[in-house]
Amino acid sequence: MRQLIIIGSGPAGYTAAIYAARANLAPLVVASSVEAGGELMNTTEVENFPGFPEGIQGPDLMTKMQEQAEKFGAEVLYDDVVKLELEGPVKTVTLGSGAVHQAAAVIFATGSAYRKINVEGEERLSGHGVSWCATCDGFFFRERVIAVVGGGDSAMEEATFLTRFASKVYVIHRREELRASKIMQERAFANAKIEFVWNSDVADILGEEAVTGVTLRSTVDGSERHLPLDGLFVAIGNDPRTHLVHDILELTPEGTIKVDGRSSRTSVAGVFAAGDVIDPTYRQAVTAASSGTVAALDAEHYLAALGEAGAPATEDDQIEGLPEADAAKVGAA
Ligand code: NAP
């Protein structure tokens, strides 16, 4: 049995792994099979992560975090968690491959998933003109007319990025004021290829084989109109990824995992949570990283306290990386 399993490989997961590995906890990081590295893998230039005055590409930043975690002894598995048993002193994590791992503590850092607009055509035309990732799919829209839905930083970033390819980018927003930060707004306003469509929702997405347009519905008077398009990028935020634990851990009214005060302690002893999955407000790479630090320190203290509590355990409960005596205590705590 291990001391610590970290589920998730965004800034929270890898920062937790760096701290835990440096504390000799030899953490196992379950990084996901397709989403390893988290949301920054779909980002271009990251300009606000301290230490990179020239900016750094999102995927490069995540690769560096992973290297740093591995350098100190973290083990990274590209697999998905399919089942969690978190009650009691031994936490069991079952992966898509069928492998079963056990640990005395778990850090849950699964981040958040793209929000959908839930209209006709969204699922059907996903990959055929509907996308959630400008950096992944922007290239396919060279000299095309496309739209981005949303009024936050993501929408501004995507729209600005997409002007590298598209001939025109509409930004469809349900209000007449953006939620995005000033600097991102100004960048978008200054871009001649971007046109804002205010007070509008996407009522449905049109097209048989590929997107041909959308029906816009006014949020002021409900009137509808057709906007011809070759593609639609949805950038309306994210929801915390809690499906694996929603019946195990207590959640907040916002749907994030509930933690105790400023700590990362969840409603189940030995289970800690960090990053976007606990944060309905800030959701920055830097705040996720700091949250990962908190989780690693909390897990470290928890494991140390278990070690001090002391009690005999079976051989099966032997914890890798701990002296046998301490390992026995953790397993039986
Ligand atoms: P967000 O800030 O929550 O903004 C979501 C936007 O989508 C809002 O404008 C919202 O409208 C709109 N929206 C939500 N649900 C909608 C729906 N069902 N239909 C139509 N519109 C809908 O999300 P985000 O832009 O993804 O940003 C998330 C966090 O990441 C933020 O903290 C942001 O600062 C950060 N971020 C930072 C950067 C950067 O600094 N480089 C880049 C991307 C994201 P309302 O405004 O009317 O609510």
Question: Outline of this structure?
Answer:
By secondary structure, the chain is an alpha/beta fold. Helix content is 25%, strand content 25%. The chain is elongated and about 65 Å long.
Task: Give a written overview of the molecule.
It contains seven helices and 19 strands. It is of the alpha/beta class. Strands 1, 2, 5, 6, 7, 8 and 19 form a seven-stranded mixed beta sheet that branches. The relative contact order is 0.18. NADP nicotinamide-adenine-dinucleotide phosphate is lined by residues 48, 115, 117, 149-155, 157, 174-175, 179, 201, 236-238, 282-284.
Q: What is the strand and helix layout of this fold?
A:
Blueprint: E1 2-7, H1 11-22, E2 28-30, E3 45-46, E4 56-57, H2 58-71, E5 75-77, E6 81-85, E7 91-95, E8 100-108, E9 112-114, E10 130-131, H3 134-137, E11 145-149, H4 153-162, E12 168-172, H5 182-189, E13 194-197, E14 200-206, E15 213-218, E16 224-228, E17 231-234, E18 238-240, E19 271-273, H6 285-309, H7 324-332
Parallel strand pairs: 1-2, 1-8, 2-5, 8-19, 10-17, 11-12, 11-17, 12-13
Antiparallel strand pairs: 3-4, 6-7, 7-8, 9-18, 14-15, 15-16
The structure holds NADP nicotinamide-adenine-dinucleotide phosphate.
NADP nicotinamide-adenine-dinucleotide phosphate (NAP) binds next to helix 4.
